[in-house]
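Folding Problem: From Residues to Backbone Shape
Fields: amino acid sequence; protein backbone structure tokens
RECORD BEGINS BELOW THIS LINE
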Amino acid sequence: MDHKLLSVGHRIGRRNVLEIGLCLALAPRIALAQTDPTRERPREGDVLVTVGATPPKPLKPEDLPLEVKQTFNWPIDPETSTVRDGSRLNKVLLLRLDPEGFDPETKEHAADGVVAYSAVCVHTGCDVTEWHPDQQLLVCPCHYSTYAPKEGAKLVSGPAPRRLPALPLKIVDGRLVVAKSFIGRAGFQQM
């Protein structure tokens, strides 16, 4: 009987040790994620720079051709020059469109016809890389979730559970600037 209790106690003890070990192993990563400014979500006042641009140059509306494929961008803190590229959930797609067809919500978040949405599909996390100019639709190539950028990136078709999160913009000194953080949660929910 004592042997059985000892055995049960040993298993519980081993599990606790494994859980504590896992917590200790992950603690530095969690702490880094919470303190690393490159991982912070876009903030009001951040400017936007094209992914891969060297040196990073804040974008102006005229830098984006009208009705042409979206560009992929990172927010950057203009005071510290910190590019928020430490998490792919910060990747923003920009598209410059004729604002004539925008719904009221999209008009409110756009700046000079430029709309900004999370570049990460809310279905399984692929980047939304396809643009169909004839239909004015964004498409995720992984499972073909289709979004209408003139209607707040609402889901038109496909398996995504919701629209792409919008990133409200404004223009300050001729540059595109984040007006507010994402409206909605960037990224996808694992099943």
In short: The longest strand covers residues 71-77. The radius of gyration is 21 Å. Residues 2-35 form the longest helix (34 residues). The CA atoms of residues 60 and 174 lie 6 Å apart.
